[in-house]
């Protein structure tokens, strides 16, 4: 089972405040523990929304709105992808998140990733083959 740990944005991350050396060291240690346990697949911090954009489609036509975006609690500051055996195992890893983050007030969200088998008959053998080929190609990039 794959899960995404979503680090919610806050005023500091939206202001572009970089983590302290102490927090960076704690995050690197946490990531190293997950890599050594064979559960971490990827993880990245995100720039503030002021450097991003939202693209909304209405009637199939895109409208682009440049950041920043006012509602901080709806934004994310980073993510980590993990592969574990259960939701409980994923929660156990999330509980180990460095307490230094956001001075102990960080908000994280855990979301399970859809797997091919979740789509049932809608994912035909032809679509599954194409999806697997695309995954393999993107892994090489």
From TrEMBL:
Residues 48-68 are annotated as: Disordered. It comes from the Bacteria. This is YCII-related domain protein. SUPFAM superfamilies: Dimeric alpha+beta barrel. Residues 1-106 form the YCII-related domain. It holds the Pfam family YCII. InterPro entries: Dimeric_a/b-barrel (IPR011008), YCII (IPR005545). It comes from Collimonas arenae. Belongs to the YciI family.
């Amino acid at each position: 089972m794959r899960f995404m740990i979503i680090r919610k944005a806050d005023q500091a991350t939206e202001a572009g405040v970089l983590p302290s050396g102490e927090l960076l060291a704690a995050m690197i240690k946490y990531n190293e523990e997950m890599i050594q346990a064979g559960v971490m697949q990827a993880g990245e911090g995100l720039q503030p929304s002021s450097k991003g954009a939202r693209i909304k489609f209405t009637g199939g036509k895109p409208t682009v709105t440049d950041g920043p975006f006012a509602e901080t609690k709806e934004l994310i500051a980073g993510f980590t992808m993990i592969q574990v055996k259960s939701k409980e195992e994923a929660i156990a890893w999330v509980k180990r998140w460095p307490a230094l983050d956001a001075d102990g007030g960080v908000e994280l969200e855990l979301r399970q990733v859809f797997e091919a088998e979740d789509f049932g008959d809608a994912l035909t053998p032809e679509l599954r083959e194409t999806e697997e080929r695309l995954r393999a190609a993107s892994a090489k990039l």
